[in-house]
């Protein structure tokens, strides 16, 4: 976009697109997104309420699970205003500064989720590899410190992003390809030198996703080695079963990220709708799946849900 003197400038508003090629199916898209939001919000709120109300769930594993649910609520509420405005009310314009704020919160919650999944893998590592010290290693103070550390790390690394975008002029229009604001999407309509943004963005991705996923893989390598050393087949199965919920949550989070990266790197000619849909999967599916995974795979969560319903209907 150009100013009166022909110089590029920052637009007052940015226009969100929704899903390209689905202009006639916006009502169905709105129904799908509303359903995803409803499942995600109800499911994660249920997990939080259960952990708070049930004394049997006052354990490190469930404290980390409550962090994950709280973070997933943050992801949902970060995207909800513009997604509902785009698909339900056909209001596609968002203030430039509001877009930067949304971008910051979407990315910070995504990076925090990676850190929480790493903390949960450490929890499973201690529980299986050093069970006698589990209660002394993962004290309430240490769990709180880990949570605050994840928040501080994510905030510190993401804090420069809005300012790096704010300094750029925009001369390639004001139309974004999603119904929410992401850093890569903003870079596509910015002009000027964006090398700093790209290099810092790559550094943050490697520093967060790369390191976290490496340590998660290392944790499960050590866990698998410890499990295989157990003589009893039944005990091996029981030990591995305690990790299945977390493994599913890790896959639900990292598989879409890897898929988005692979498409971006090796299938640049892919239709725009493919990129948009994969970004939607990356942001909307994990917050919806996580409470379902833990409700299905964790008997303590299932028992807590049954008790709540029994009390409600009793």
From TrEMBL:
Gene Ontology CC annotations of this record: plasma membrane
Organismal lineage: Eukaryota, Metazoa, Chordata, Craniata, Vertebrata
UniProt subcellular location: Cell membrane; Membrane
Main localisation: membrane
UniProt xrefs under Pfam families: 7tm_4 (PF13853)
UniProt keyword list: Cell membrane, G-protein coupled receptor, Membrane, Olfaction, Receptor, Sensory transduction, Transducer, Transmembrane, Transmembrane helix
The protein, known as: Olfactory receptor
Sequence similarity: Belongs to the G-protein coupled receptor 1 family.
Transmembrane segments: 27-50, 62-84, 104-122, 143-165, 199-223, 244-267, 273-296
Record's function text: Putative odorant or sperm cell receptor.
Membrane topology of this protein: Multi-pass membrane protein
Coiled coil start-end: none
InterPro entries from the UniProt entry: GPCR_Rhodpsn (IPR000276), GPCR_Rhodpsn_7TM (IPR017452), Olfact_rcpt (IPR000725), OR51/52/56-like (IPR050402)
